[in-house]
Write a structure and sequence with these properties.
Nuclear Transport Factor 2, Chain: A, about 70 residues, alpha+beta
Length: about 70
């Protein structure tokens, strides 16, 4: 599976999400967010049962960023 990741921006805010595997072959969805000006932000990692669950959560994040008017960057 090719690595899935996305990066979004809106004003000074940014958001990043990816799907990866850890050393024990567990599927993880990592979400990182922050502000370019205040330098504040956070990180959350979700441990998923399988790849399908990880992809479902990833697609939820993509949909949520679009609904919040974030612009996806390459």
């Amino acid at each position: 599976m090719p690595k899935q990741y996305s990066f979004w921006e809106r004003g000074t805010r940014w958001y990043y999400c990816d799907i990866s595997q850890d050393l024990f072959k567990n599927w993880l969805v990592c979400r990182v967010w922050g502000d370019k000006v205040s330098r504040r932000g956070g990180r959350k990692e979700h441990l998923c049962e399988n790849l399908e669950e990880a992809e479902k959560l990833y697609q939820y994040v993509v949909k949520r960023r679009k609904s919040r008017k974030y612009e996806q960057k390459e």
